[in-house]
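Problem 3 from the worked examples.
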Amino acid sequence: MTGREFLELDSPQQRLILERFKRMEIIQKMFNELPKADQNLCNHGKYFLAANSSLCGLAANNFFRSILHVRKATVVSAIPMAVIPFLSTAAIYEAFVYDPLFSGQLNCEVCAVIRGGLVGAVVGGFYPIFLAIPLNGSLAARYMSTPLPGKENLLRYWLTTSQPVFRKMGLGILVQALTGLYLATKQHGIYIKMLLQMNSSRDPEELPE
């Protein structure tokens, strides 16, 4: 007995799983028939958001280095601030927006757009700033470029130190949020276009709702 036959014979939950796989196959087939411009936007749009996240990381790193008077380890501090935000933003956008959307699990336009904006702002904008704090704090302590407070005043010190950085990065965070909103909106539009093509070409039982 094959796995497909096993799924067909058992519970309604397994039939739903089978229908979901069938739906995903049809979506993938329709996706491959899209214009190249639409395919490129869906496949590579997240990398544009991730590249902006790297720029935010490098900018935040430079701001903290200037505030803390860190002059050494320029390359060592720049590499993780470029690479980690890039990988994190691309992976999280894929997991929370792209995959649910094109697997048929995220049909709500407002939900998709909100997710895209949140990923852009939080992961692509705020996260690189928070990532720069311990990195540059450890460099400042290692090279003794700036006297750091004790544990009892550490939180207040970093809140005060970070305020000018957040103000300077405000535009970058806004751009990231708008970029995430734009990508999610465009990709949801492409997904709806695929659904309309399916509904106009499929048999009544070919793609269950």
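Problem 4, a separate protein:
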Amino acid sequence: MNTVFRKLQVSVTQHAFVLNQALTLCRATPSVQHPVWTSVNERQYKSMPTHGIGRWRHLLPREAPKKKKDRHQMKEILAETDTAYGTLNVKVSGYDMTLVEHYSQYIHNLCNRLGIKVAESYALPTKTTEVMLLQEQGTKMFVDAVLKTHSRVVQLSSLNATACPVFIDVLLKNQPEGVQLSVQEHTEADFHARFKGRPELEGLMAQMGN
């Protein structure tokens, strides 16, 4: 019996020692402090400057400035050969802008399908025509209607002579009503016709030149 009591005393003392060590460790560890939540809009980095973050262009070597191209510079007019035409203008004009625009798009898409090189596709300035009407009794005339003529040009280069008749035939068969079609060689006058004349500016430039 004495041996049993001794064993119980030893085990109790060991458990008490372990509990004392655990309590001392818990007292030694600092208490966990809950964070204080601040408002979302409040900045946490007021004293930290952010200038220059994300900039990288100063790390690249400096490039020479590109020269601005003259947009109104006339391109070289190709001369015709034995097997191909030179620079041709396919001009579409009419009073209905929607029909003129769609037909010019059709011509451009047809050239892409047939492998015909399109140099440029542009619009000419709109021309306005006033229709005057004379009164039955009197000599005064008044404006009865205003007609606007819209024009589009599809410029072709080096059109094959054998494919030209087929190309023109397809265009004529799909030509809508009220739309005029013409094909002619490109000239310098056609290039200058793309831009509206400014007589006031031209007069001032002439005075400066004199």
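Solution to problem 4. The longest strand covers residues 118-134. The helical segments are 2-28, 97-114, 164-173, 188-192, 199-209.
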